[in-house]
Write a structure and sequence with these properties.
By secondary structure, the protein is mainly beta. It folds into 2 domains: about 150 residues, Coagulation Factor XIII, Chain A, domain 1, CATH 2.70.50.60; about 130 residues, abc- transporter (atp binding component) like domain (Coagulation Factor XIII, Chain A, domain 1). The protein has 1 helix and 22 strands. The strands form 5 sheets. Strands 3, 5, 9, 10, 12 and 13 form a 6-stranded mixed β-sheet that branches. Strand 12 and strand 13 form a beta hairpin. It is elongated.
Length: about 290
């Protein structure tokens, strides 16, 4: 079953922090207000490395890290934090809100002094817009609180070059089916099931209330060797309803191990069989062993 990236969501997690403390620091672009709960360091990362930019790619995973949190009341040598998040558009609309990210909070020992919020930047958040993300950390056994906020921009993946001729779309991305994560660094691996998805497709003509599309897929390496080619992956599929189309039109790809000359070129063409409208996309990717 194909996984599609449909919704933004946040996961909160406690972490044991063993590396050296770099001292109290709040990364540029982040503001923090401490009311009883304090923190030594706040920054954004990709799960491994700190991110200095505040411009992110649609579908990207970002982590807000709160290191050296203190000020909680302890019961039986444990503290009980709670985290919530909401995202506001530049126009002032709350586009996403999640409370109680620690659903099953059995308490944390004092050796755990890092809290982390993971945010997937996807629908109802959209590229080409500006947002502010707000986190609140509270003490469930006291009155302490900590607030943070950060402005950010969201852009389309510039690794996917699109030529539109009648068909248009809202978002496009390449995702690993195994991890469910969007690939934003143009690097893929062998034996990795990939999906290039176009969400919110529009510009086609309905016939008897249904949509009829064609899907051409091709991958070649830099030496011109054809790895995969399918003239119409939708041949014999029949018509689709509009809701299915808007959720995502995608091609899948899985590269078996073998000799390939980087970079590889993944081409995709979607066309409307009821009109002349079409859309062409090309992504150049590097295959890692």
């Amino acid at each position: 079953m194909k996984k599609y990236l449909k919704y933004a969501f946040t996961i909160a997690a406690p972490l044991v922090f063993n590396s050296c403390n770099l001292g109290g620091s709040i990364a540029d672009g982040i503001s923090v207000k401490e009311e009883g709960v304090s923190v030594d360091k706040v920054y954004v990362s990709d799960g491994k490395d700190e991110l200095k930019t505040r411009t992110f790619t649609y579908g990207q995973n970002i982590y807000t890290n709160f290191e050296g949190v203190e000020g909680f009341n302890f019961e039986n040598n444990k503290y009980y934090p709670q985290m919530s998040v909401y995202i506001v558009s530049k126009e002032g609309d709350t586009v996403m809100k999640q409370d109680k990210l620690y659903n099953d909070n059995a308490g944390f020992g004092k050796e755990i002094n890092v809290l982390e919020g993971r945010l997937i930047l996807a629908n109802p958040i959209h590229s080409g817009k500006e947002y502010t993300v707000h986190y609140t950390i509270t003490d469930q056994k006291g009155d302490g609180r900590l607030y943070s906020e950060m402005d950010f921009n969201l852009i389309k993946d510039d690794n996917i070059q699109v030529e539109k001729n009648g068909l248009d779309f809202q978002e496009a991305y390449i995702m690993s089916q195994k991890t469910g994560e969007v690939i934003t660094n143009a690097e893929i691996g062998f034996d990795q099931l990939l999906l290039m998805d176009f969400q919110g497709l529009n510009g086609y003509q309905l016939k008897n209330g249904m949509v009829s599309l064609g899907l051409y897929v091709k991958m070649t390496d830099s030496s011109g060797n054809v790895v995969v080619e399918n003239k119409d992956a939708f041949s014999g599929r029949g018509t689709m309803d509009e809701n299915t189309v808007k959720q995502g039109i995608a091609s899948t790809m899985k590269l078996s191990r073998g000799k390939l000359d980087n970079p590889v070129k993944w081409e995709m063409r979607i066309w409307d069989k009821n009109s002349d409208a079409e859309l062409k996309a090309v992504a150049e990717l590097t295959v890692k062993n």
